[in-house]
Amino acid sequence: MSVLLVGEGREYLVAHGETLETDLGVLEVPEDAAPGETLETHLGTEFDVRALRGPDLFEHFERTGAPMMPRDIGLIVGHTGIAAGDRVLDVGTGTGVLAGYLGRVGASVVTYEQREDFADVARENMALAGVEDAVDVRTGDATETLGELDDDAPFDVLTLDTADASELVGHAPDLLADGGFVAVYSPFVESSKEVVKTARDVGLSEIETLETIQREMDFDDRGSRPSTAGVGHTGYLTFARLV
């Protein structure tokens, strides 16, 4: 297991029993280091011990590409109601941030990643998150293993972050339990349009597409206003339901 060491404006992810070596000193992390404790380097620099939480996983997972942003994950959980005990089929694992979050809320996740090297990294990330027993990382093209997926079905939620999402949406009625949801992330609105068309063609309901935008606020002596640093657009989320 790993913990976060926070101090002097820095943050380090270190496993129990490992040694942290920085210009602030050397620190041996005890095997029983617990959140809330304060540890000191040999130079006397103090670090607070923190447990890993969802946002920390986003920051410290080894990345194999651009991971899904927490704001998008929040919308997926909120719109589909993913909860402990749900079964989720996730296609397009990537770094595994979404799968890791869902595993931590108690869902059982089967996630597909086409690249073996990316899948290996995702498995390591699931171990870091402590959800390796809840998240089954599989290597391969989900569209080519539909027979295997039929054996695993039904799923409560289908989450897709892949270029062939519209093809998989076409199989949603065979993969989802009654009342189950589809959630599709896409960086391009054209892909979202294809997903919506397919969802309509196969009889899904409650279809909607949202653009995710988040703006930070600036507060100073002159007043308060949205930041002018740029609009925080990440992508498009399409939701649909089988009823």
From TrEMBL:
GO terms for biological process: tRNA methylation. The lineage of its organism: Archaea, Methanobacteriati, Methanobacteriota, Stenosarchaea group, Halobacteria. Transmembrane segments: none annotated. One of its GO terms (molecular function) is tRNA (adenine(58)-N1)-methyltransferase activity. Pfam families: GCD14 (PF08704). Gene3D superfamilies: Vaccinia Virus protein VP39 (3.40.50.150). It comes from Halorhabdus utahensis (strain DSM 12940 / JCM 11049 / AX-2). InterPro entries: SAM-dependent_MTases_sf (IPR029063), TRM61_C (IPR049470), tRNA_MeTrfase_Gcd14 (IPR014816). Keywords: Methyltransferase, S-adenosyl-L-methionine, Transferase, tRNA processing. It comes from the Archaea. This is tRNA methyltransferase complex GCD14 subunit. GO terms for cellular component: tRNA (m1A) methyltransferase complex. Residues 71-218 form the tRNA (adenine(58)-N(1))-methyltransferase catalytic subunit TRM61 C-terminal domain.
